[in-house]
Design brief:
The chain has 12 helices and 14 strands. With 357 residues, the chain is an alpha/beta fold. Bound molecules: 3-isopropylmalic acid (IPM) and magnesium ion. 3-isopropylmalic acid binds next to α4.
Length: 357
């Protein structure tokens, strides 16, 4: 029987609740599709800080390195905001991305017909939206040196460096070109080349690569305009290629086209080794432990894990279909609730997803 080792990182806030639902569904699809998942649950984020003082214990990183795929729920809690940066949950996440060399972050945004009215945008604007944000994840201003806080001229100064090498740009651009080639063959690269040197290099490299992908139509857009176009006419986009910081911001904005960030999965991939699959949303400490969370973004992240990370395509499709069915049947978690639908908590939603499988 096929076996896959999956490290589970429940993390903080609503993380453990949505992990429990997702794990149960994974066990059922695995059995039904004749493979075995060997789960290894590890401390990560705030939970790991509480347990051992570090958001990314060495044992967790090692377990991830030796797995076939890593499935993360969410991390973060305002309780840790005052700690030094190296002891915050977010630093653990950056360490995990860097430690597994996950330079490519894929964030698909599709509008499920059942949720067309959940968006704050008019349905005619978002109908048919199907785009993919390809965000560079291990470089740019998130990791650039020098950075820090210094005393200078009698006051304090904080600084970070936005930097990309040609190698870093080329490898993420290649991912985006390949994806675009398998989708509608349209690639829009987002930068701030009218101001930033790092963006001009980015643009030059994307243009240079375009000649090797003659079937892909390439365009460039400044990030401020892209932010506007995403809400003005999101259907113009298919694959959006962008750096770490711009991708962070634009992927949250793109998420809201769907009405709830609670529906969006993501995959972070390197050129070898396990991928990391996680919902785009955070740990939602305000609703944690109350059985109110929407588990569907994590279920859809598990589907991405099955499809991309473990090549279990049929099982992936089964999970995605269960989400579709439950929504079509009118079941909603609080974040998606609209008139005439039935409101469910996290575990009851899990039950419905199981039945729909
Ligand atoms: C994301 C998050 C992270 C990021 C935070 C939690 C460090 O916002 O995955 O988009 O900025 O990358
Ligand atoms: Mg973000």
């Amino acid at each position: 029987m096929r076996q896959h080792r999956v490290v589970l990182l429940p993390g903080d806030g609503i993380g453990p609740e949505i992990t429990a639902v997702t794990k149960r569904l994974l066990e059922v699809v695995a059995e039904r599709h004749d493979f075995q998942l060997i789960f290894d649950e590890q401390d990560f984020g705030g939970a790991a800080i509480d347990a051992s003082g570090s958001p990314l214990p060495t044992s967790t990183l090692e377990a991830c390195r030796h797995s076939d795929a890593v499935l993360l729920a969410a991390i973060g809690n305002p309780r840790f905001d005052a700690l030094p940066r190296d002891q915050r949950p977010e630093t653990g996440l950056l360490g995990l991305r860097a430690g597994l060399k996950l330079f490519a972050n894929l964030r698909p945004v599709t509008i499920l017909p059942a949720l067309i009215n959940a968006s704050s945008l008019k349905s005619e604007v978002i109908e048919g939206v199907d785009l993919m944000v390809v965000r560079e994840l291990t470089g740019g201003i998130y990791f650039g040196q020098p950075k820090g806080r210094i005393e200078a001229d009698g006051e304090e100064r904080g600084f970070n460096t936005m930097t990309y090498s040609t190698t870093e740009i080329d490898r993420i651009a290649r991912v985006a070109f390949e994806l675009a080639g398998n989708r509608s063959k349209k690639l829009c690269s987002i930068d701030k080349a009218n101001v930033l040197d790092v963006s001009q290099l980015w643009r030059d490299r994307v243009d240079a690569m375009a000649s090797s992908y003659a079937d892909v139509e390439v365009s460039h857009m400044y990030v401020d305009n892209a932010a506007m176009q995403l809400v003005r006419n999101p259907r113009q986009f298919d694959v959006l290629l962008t750096g770490n910081l711009f991708g962070d911001i634009l992927s949250d904005e793109a998420a809201m086209l769907t009405g709830s960030i609670g529906m969006l999965p993501s995959a972070s991939l390197g050129s070898e080794g396990p991928g990391l699959f996680e919902p785009v949303h955070g740990s939602a400490p305000d609703i944690a432990g109350q059985d109110l969370a929407n588990p569907m973004a994590m279920v859809l992240s598990a589907a991405m894990m099955l499809r991309i990370g473990l090549k279990e395509t049929d099982a992936a499709t089964a999970l995605e279909q269960s989400v579709d069915r439950v929504l079509q049947a009118g079941f909603r978690t609080g974040d998606l609730m609209s008139e005439g639908c039935e409101r469910l908590g996290c575990s009851a939603m899990g039950e419905q997803l199981l039945q729909a499988l």
